Description:
By secondary structure, the protein is α/β, with parallel strands linked by helices. It is built from 13 helices and 17 strands. The protein folds into 2 domains: 16-34 and 294-388, Aspartate Aminotransferase, domain 1; 51-290, Aspartate Aminotransferase, domain 2 (3-Layer(aba) Sandwich).
Amino acid sequence: MTSAIMPTYAPADIAFEHGEGVYLYSTDGKKYVDFGSGIAVSALGHSHPHLVAAIQEQAGKVMHYSNLYRIPGQETLAQRLVDNSFASSVFCTNSGAEAVECGLKIVRRYHDVNGNPDKYRVITCTGSFHGRTLATLSAAKNEKHMDGFTPMLDGFDQVPFGNLNELRAAVTEETAAILVEPIQGEGGITYAEPEYFKRLRDTADEFGLLLFLDEVQTGIGRTGKLFAHEWADIQPDVVAAAKGLGGGFPVGACLANEKATAAMAPGTHGSTFGGNPMASAAANAVLDIVLGDGFLENVQKTGAYLRTKLEELSAKHAFLGDVRGQGLLTGIVCDDSVVNLDLVKAAENIGLLTVPAGANVVRVLPPLIVTEAEIDEGMAILDQACGEMGG
Ligand SMILES: *Cc1c(COP(=O)(O)O)cnc(C)c1O
């Protein structure tokens, strides 16, 4: 099939006509259990009545008029994120990469306004993913993603994820910040101990660095807390969020604490669309649900249930290994005999959507509204797909 779409993707030959809850229905009439959530985006599943109503209502009033004027919905959104986090201000973006870019700019400007313009380097981790813009590619240093796009931006020093000694050894007079994901999503649901993050906080304080967390995938309830760093009980200086924030409407956010916020002033950053009335209405509707009574506790509960079920599958099928993750950000490792994408395809053929990740991991990322019965349904399909893989 020829297509006018620039050939950067290799999509499966499936298109969805509509969705409801955790289900998607293809244009050829097949029903799918969606445990990919459009890569951890559809936090409320599909066609959630509260989100749909909020978007419809806002579309009928006004969609956009730019940040040249006050946007009450964006003010409410920012205040709610501030009230429920470490942050004291929020910059609204349209995507995850832009939220990370905003944080990188804040980090540089923070040191500049504090009389240290030579502090501009950021320590990042192997296996990370921060987006597809030039700065975020330069931060993550993924060879495959950089191919053909060099030279990268200067100013990023990489150390192994989870290794505090190497990170400390990489700090120089020019270091401005540490940028890490609380759990590496694209990298393969790679996890580090809460103690590591506590020590990152200490290290940042010791050397006067900002601690910048990329919570684009882990944030907005995905792990069973609004932000995953809450599990380590630490206060970062800057956080990037996006994916689940709009429940499918493109919107991101860069959150900053008081001292990081103080570096920014009118004219230092901007976005035409960022946090426009539509995006803000969508994100506020998502927060209505995610911050509602018992919602995050329920994500923890269903996440634990999903994990148990994945561990059962791992025990049953020889090629499956480690089950990783927290809350509803989970993944299961395949051994060398099976390519993760083949398992994803086998499950897709019988009606379950999952997402491949690095380290030969299959990500299982149900909408946050998933029930235990729906998890059973998805896991039955995954079990069948594993059987077909001959394991
Ligand atoms: C998806 C992702 C991004 C990039 O988000 P986009 O909206 O695709 O720009 C950045 N960081 C992490 C951790 C992500 O998972």
